[in-house]
Amino acid sequence: MPETRKTVCNRDCPDACGIVATVEDGKVTRIAGDPAHPITRGFLCYRTQHFLGRQYSLDRLSSPLLRIDGELRPVSWERALDFAAERLLAIRRESGPAAIFHYRSGGSLGLLKSLTDLFFERFGPVTVKRGDICSGAGDAAQATDFGDEDSNDLHDLLNARHILVWGKNVTVSNPHVLPVLLEARARGAQLVLIDPVSHKTRSHCDVFFQPRPAGDFALAMAVARVLFERGWIDREAERYCDHVPDFRRMCEARSVEAWCEEADVPPACAEDLARRLGPEKPTAILVGWGMGRRANGAAIVRALDALAALSGNIGIPGGGVSFYYKRRGAFDTSFVRGLSAAPRSVCEPLFGREVLAARDPPIRAVWITAGNPVAMLPDSNTTREALATRELVVVVDAFLTDTAREAHLVLPTTTLLEADDLLGAYGHHYLGSARPVVAPPADVRSDLEIMQALASRVGLGDAIDGDAASWKRRLLGSRMEPAGVTLETLDRGPVKNPLAPRILFADRRFPTPSGRVNLITEPPARPSAEPGDVSYPLVLMSLSTERSQSSQWAKEPRGPAVVTVHPDAASGIADGGEGRLESRIGSMTVRVKHDAEQRRDVAIVPKGGHLRDGRCPNVLIRAATTDLGEGGALYDERVRLVPMA
Ligand SMILES: Nc1nc2c(c(=O)[nH]1)N[C@H]1C(S)=C(S)[C@@H](COP(=O)(O)OP(=O)(O)OC[C@H]3O[C@@H](n4cnc5c(=O)[nH]c(N)nc54)[C@H](O)[C@@H]3O)O[C@H]1N2
Ligand SMILES: Nc1nc2c(c(=O)[nH]1)N[C@H]1C(S)=C(S)[C@@H](COP(=O)(O)OP(=O)(O)OC[C@H]3O[C@@H](n4cnc5c(=O)[nH]c(N)nc54)[C@H](O)[C@@H]3O)O[C@H]1N2
Ligand code: SF4
Ligand SMILES: [Mo]
Q1: Same domain, yes or no, for 354 and 439?
Q2: Is residue 1 one of the residues assigned to a domain?
Q3: Residue 228 Cα distances to 222, 232, 238, 516, 567, angstroms
């Protein structure tokens, strides 16, 4: 008899969907979105809709693999864990725990993954990562400006008159916000897209502005100048914002025309946006995560924060400048101290370079949980070299990724349909409990089980003992249980975090040192993707595709990666023809797709291609950090497209 079971998607995605799985004879035969989940509304994205192909893929790892005589070979868990324990103990004894680097990424956003961090903190503390390849710049920008980052309730968008979708492809990367945007539009709101790339979300928007990549800071300054000139600044702004005169001086240093020229948009664009933010408010700004992945990324987000604050759109229904929803806010993870306890850290976007350069002690071992840094961090070849030259690399994953291929030991782990965990979301305020809808294959273990088995071998005693349910209760204990949300409540279905604000900063008090918004006062020191580089005329935009979750493809693509360019930027290569994409550090073969809707200075490729298939854009991208927050300046690399020799 088919049975339906519910869980929550744990992928690195803002939506944290409710999933309904149909299980027959111990096998999942169908997955669908939970119609009862207020955000999921009964549909899943393409990549998870097709997840059963991965769940039951023949490529899925089914036993531990140990490198013996240069080859990864299946071994028992006994042998695998004994090997790991013996090597970790020896390295700690000889060089101290800082010689071990634990790298964890977002393969699962389950809160229980922090128990892997706890293991390494107790075993060490060891070297950990700092910065954030994904959202480092934007997180730091919002924390600097507001002292905290969160958002108005997602459904508060229905109160907006205008919604500025600023550098965000919701259709692909945040699909469950789309029904809310469309409902807002049906009620009369206008949707405005501001993005250098013409993408699917455009068809849902009333207006589209297409600035130069990284031109948004200049565009925001033009908008700010119009706000001041027209008297559209909120009358109270000086009361709740610091540095208004300095900010004003900065935006008035150039004319609206000059700023717009830098942004490569007509001056009417600045007028248009200022009118929406000022006299026609409330206006909500949805800040995309992609825009911040560049050298001036934090300055851009700070400039958008300033527009929202000065125009009086903060703290009101239908307003806000939303970058993030506090997904961990409901949970108590204070048992792990994280970066503050670590003897040393490695900057995530500079992974390869810093691992290679580390001294006193050198990094001898790298343990990788839920990440594929070889494919996903910039400068793939250096990342790979850094791993290939370590004494011990352990990767815990369900697949033999580009990273796992560099390992000495690969430990097979559970998928999102087998996960037992707690989830918050970074795109709304609902919480969920993930429960296994099927048991994992016989020789596959959860991260928690793996770390517990290792703990007993390395003499950590009962430091991370306890089953998933008891850890879930502990995470919910101090904040959620007093608010009436227990594990039993969450096991029945999603619950909106009772601590989450409906309107963020409604009292216009901010947890900054002064209690006011800290407006940006200086333009970015470093240029992003400077225009006019004749040898490398295109800015490489390696962006989310609906076909994959980072390097996890619904179906493995074949052949060269597709690069989308304006026909005038195709270097004479016909639509469908092959060419080479070259940067200052690498090159890759690509299939060229013409698209006359794109700017002539961008080359768009899907993110997440595998290195071993020659589809990985990160071979082209130099490792560099953003202006704040040690994010990855991933979208600043310039490339050229050349015909095949
Ligand atoms: N299908 C799918 N969904 C995903 C993912 C995936 O791999 N595939 N990844 C997930 C992850 S890890 C994350 S962090 C989130 C967010 O994932 P992201 O891919 O960051 O999603 P977006 O926020 O849509 O950001 C991309 C948008 O930013 C725009 N952009 C880039 N530079 C600029 C600029 O200078 N100015 C402006 N105005 N816009 C710019 C790009 O053109 C693009 O449209 O999505 C998640 N969702
Ligand atoms: N060029 C370029 N590079 C980018 C980006 C870009 O836009 N352009 N985007 C960046 C962004 S936003 C991000 S967030 C990063 C993402 O970088 P990563 O987090 O490294 O992304 P994934 O490829 O999804 O790797 C996650 C891995 O975790 C595994 N996994 C899944 N569930 C579990 C689990 O429960 N336990 C364990 N142990 N493993 C699990 C998956 O099989 C997968 O191999 O990439 C960044 N890199
Ligand atoms: S990846 Fe995102 S959109 Fe897709 S099912 Fe998971 S949470 Fe929903
Ligand atoms: Mo991300």
Answers
A1: yes
A2: no
A3: 10, 6, 13, 20, 40
- Specify whether 72 is located in the same domain as 195: no
Q: Give the bridge partners for 564, in sequence order.
A: 593, 604
Residues 6+ apart with CB under 8 A from 70: none
For position 534, what pLDDT does the model report?
86
Amino acid 530: pLDDT: 63
Domain contains 104: yes
Q: Can you state the angle between helices 447-457 and 77-95, rounded to 10 degrees?
A: 60
pLDDT digits (tens, 9 = 90+) for 138-163: 999 999 999 999 999 999 999 999 99
What's the CA-to-centroid distance between 378 and ligand 4, angstroms? 13
C-alpha torsion sign, points 105, 444, 611, 356: positive
136 lines ligand 1 (CB under 6 A): no
368 and 229, same domain (yes or no): no
Residue 629 placed within a domain? yes
Q: Which residues of 139-150 are buried (b: 16+ CB within 10 A; e: fewer)?
A: bbbbbbbbbebb
CATH number at residue 197: 3.40.228.10
Distance 264 CA to ligand 2 centre (A): 33
- Cα separation, 404 vs 410, whole angstroms: 6
Closest residue by Cα to atom 20, ligand 1, is: 290
> Do residues 627 and 528 touch, judged by C-beta distance below 8 A?
no
Domain around 101: 65-125+332-423+430-496
Q: What percent of the chain has pLDDT over 90?
A: 98
| pLDDT tens for each residue of 505-526 | 999 999 999 999 999 999 998 7
Beta carbon of 546 within 6 Å of any ligand 1 atom: yes
| For residue 644, pLDDT beyond 90 | yes
pTM of the model: 0.98
| pLDDT for res 1 | 86
Query: Is any ligand 3 atom within 6 A of the Cβ of residue 425?
Result: no
Ligand nearest to the CA of 50: 3
pLDDT of 532 > 70? The answer is no
Q: Ligand 1 within 6 A of 325 CB?
A: no
Pairing relationship of beta strands 162-166 and 283-287 according to DSSP bridges: parallel
What is the secondary structure of 329-392 as a DSSP string?
A: TTS--TT--GGGG-S-EEEGGGHHHHHHH--SS---EEEEES--HHHHSSSHHHHHHHHHTSSE
Q: Where are the alpha helices (DSSP H) in 433-467?
A: 447-457
**Quick one: the chain helix, strand, coil %, rounded to 5?**
35, 20, 45
Please state the φ and ψ torsions of residue 294, each to the nearest 5 degrees.
-160, 165
- Residues 558, 412, single domain; the answer is no
The DSSP code for 404 is: G
Residue nearest to atom 39 of ligand 1 (CA): 167
Q: CA-CA distance, 273 to 360, in Å (whole number)? A: 53
Looking at residue 583, which CATH number applies to its domain?
A: 2.40.40.20
pLDDT, one tens digit per residue, over 424-462 is 999 999 999 999 999 999 999 999 999 999 999 999 989
- For the chain, the domain total comes to 3
44 lines ligand 3 (CB under 6 A): yes
Ligand 2 and 636: CB distance under 6 A:
no
